[in-house]
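Protocol step 4 of 6: structure prediction from sequence.
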Amino acid sequence: EVSQYAKVLPDTVSWAEPHWLYIYYPKWQAFIQLTYKPLKGEKRKLFEHINDAYTLVAKHNMKSSGTKEYQMHASNGKSTTLIELNGEVATSLQFFTTDSSKHFLRGAIYVKTATQNDSLAPIIRFLKQDAFHLIQTLSWK
């Protein structure tokens, strides 16, 4: 489920793959970037995508004043890792969720004025809650 405050837009970067999306919040010039990767039962792909997700977190971790990592396991078989980054970072939350065999979805929250995170705290909190809701209501097709 996507917030009423958001628009779902295709990712238009030149290297975007099918099913890459932005959940864009025009009022705050913020978005949740989603990149989907099919696994096709290949464990190697799962480990590669998880490694890539941590590599992307590490790029932002240099400016972070700390990180917290959480694991969620849903009854429908989805496993989710959430990584919160604190401080003046471009992305305050990154996550990935998977069923470990067919689907892998990575997401990250971005706010265009990320260097002002203290004053953006209410917006960042809202976006995190929206990301949690998105993960909890996600169903694979």
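Step 5 (inspection) to follow. Strands lie at 7-10, 21-25, 30-38, 66-73, 79-86, 93-98, 103-111.
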